[in-house]
Specification:
By secondary structure, this protein is mainly beta. Helix content is 14%, strand content 50%. It has two helices and ten strands, in the order H-H-E-E-E-E-E-E-E-E-E-E. Strands 1, 2, 3, 4, 5, 6, 7, 8, 9 and 10 form a ten-stranded mixed sheet that branches. A hairpin with a 4-residue loop joins strand 9 and strand 10. The protein starts with a helix and ends in a 6-residue tail after the last strand.
């Protein structure tokens, strides 16, 4: 009877262990933050490539270096005006990628917890829908940085 119960338990847990955590599927590259003067919010940019066979969904972002980190999207409306909106999630397709870049998807980082300067590195944690996390080092760059 104990063997049967153990077998049932293992079979129930197998689907959870057979699938890789979403964070394990993601490769982050070219992660940087555009530092703006004074108390202006900074912009965070990174390339996220999903090397897995299933989509990964980014649901939140955090960093000890900033009080608030939000996922945003900038876009042009039909009148040609730039608009920005907060996103509650961003899906990275299986075997695909998403670029967080100026004038598109990006991170909005508000209220630095301590003074930062170009050349510093901070850790940013990406939180995925399945509860997994990916810590990514971001390079602080000056306000005039492009790319």
């Amino acid at each position: 009877m104990k063997r049967v119960m153990l077998l049932v338990l293992l079979m129930a847990l197998l689907p959870h262990y057979a699938l890789a955590a979403q964070a394990d599927q993601i490769k982050a590259s070219h992660a940087w933050i555009r530092l703006l003067p004074g108390d202006l919010p900074a912009g965070g940019y990174v390339r996220l490539d999903n090397q897995g066979a299933s989509a990964a969904t980014l649901v939140s972002v955090q960093s000890a270096a900033y009080v608030s980190v939000m996922l945003h999207q900038s876009a042009m409306d039909q009148a040609g005006n730039s608009a920005m909106r907060v996103l509650d999630r961003l899906t990275i397709p299986a075997h695909g990628g998403v670029a967080l870049a100026p004038a598109g998807y990006h991170l909005m980082l508000q209220q630095a917890a301590h003074p930062l300067k170009p050349g510093d590195k901070i850790d940013v944690t990406l939180n995925f829908a399945d509860g997994s996390h990916l810590q990514v080092p971001f390079l602080i760059r000056p306000a005039n940085a492009v790319d």
